[in-house]
Design brief:
This protein has helices at residues 15-28, 41-48, 52-64, 87-97, 103-124, 127-140, 147-163, 168-180, 182-190, 195-214, 218-235, and strands at residues 68-70, 78-80. It is mainly alpha-helical. The chain folds into two domains: 15-80, Arc Repressor Mutant, subunit A, CATH 1.10.10; 87-235, Four Helix Bundle (Hemerythrin (Met), subunit A) (Up-down Bundle).
Length: 247
């Protein structure tokens, strides 16, 4: 055996990471749940044996991740959020912008999520869902509409399909992905020779997808949404291995 033996020095764990680890452990084992209030800043710092600045640092990280809402003033305090926060959206947006994922990664993920969404929607969507989806498409046909609003409504249509499934996690994942790629979608439209002609095709495809969902034809809805997504990426010439952070 060599002198080193492959051993590595033990890494020192920062105080705020230890605080986060304890909070995380209590969430995972059920001792803390959504809606619970953490002890006051003074009390929690004493219980953990850490300084209040270290405690604040860990709570700020959890706040950024969308896990807690920090109440300001007085002794302060934090409450565990009972609805998804913006942490996933913000993290995904930054990682996409930095080029951590290729367009092929994004395309594959969209195909998987949206195929699942329309399949579930064809089985579970209600009349009010169909009415709201149709209203979104009507607004997309406004003659004076410009690219940013058209893109916003496009994203709203796909998100509303996910919401119609009744699966909150699916809807949140879909919303996070759509928000994260919003800028890139705008750039794709900007590179089109005549975006309004493309918009006509997009609107027609949306109508067909909605009709298939309303007819409870999951197989047709899935095929249409997959064609819709891949055709648009091909029109925008964003295939290949280029990354979202480039260009």
């Amino acid at each position: 055996m060599t002198a080193g033996g492959g051993w590595e020095p033990v890494q020192r764990v920062r105080t705020y990471e230890q605080v986060m680890a304890q909070i995380e452990e209590r969430i995972l084992d059920g001792r803390l749940k959504a809606g619970d209030h953490l002890p006051s800043e003074r009390e929690l710092a004493a219980l953990l044996g850490v300084s209040r600045p270290s405690l604040r640092e860990s709570l700020r990280v959890l706040e950024a991740l969308g896990v807690v809402d920090i109440r300001r003033g007085g002794e302060g305090g934090a409450i565990l959020l009972d609805a998804p926060g913006g942490g996933l959206v913000n993290l995904l947006k930054l990682q996409l912008s930095l080029g951590h994922f290729s367009w092929n990664d994004v395309l594959g993920t969209r195909l998987a999520l949206e195929s699942w969404a329309v399949t579930e929607a064809a089985q579970r969507a209600r009349d009010e869902d169909f009415q709201e989806l149709a209203a979104i498409l009507d607004r997309m046909e406004a003659p004076e509409i410009e690219t940013p609003e058209f893109n916003r409504l496009d994203a709203a249509f796909h998100l509303r399909i996910a919401e119609s499934t009744g699966n909150a996690l699916l809807a949140h994942l879909m919303g996070s992905l759509r928000v994260a790629i919003h800028r890139q979608m705008i750039e794709m439209y900007a590179q089109l020779e005549d975006w309004r002609e493309t918009a006509k095709v997009v609107r027609a495809e949306h109508r067909d997808i909605l009709a298939a969902i309303a007819a409870r034809d999951a197989e047709r809805a899935t095929r249409l949404v997959r064609e819709h997504i891949t055709d648009f990426y091909n029109i925008g010439h964003f295939g290949g291995e280029s990354t979202l952070g480039q260009g």
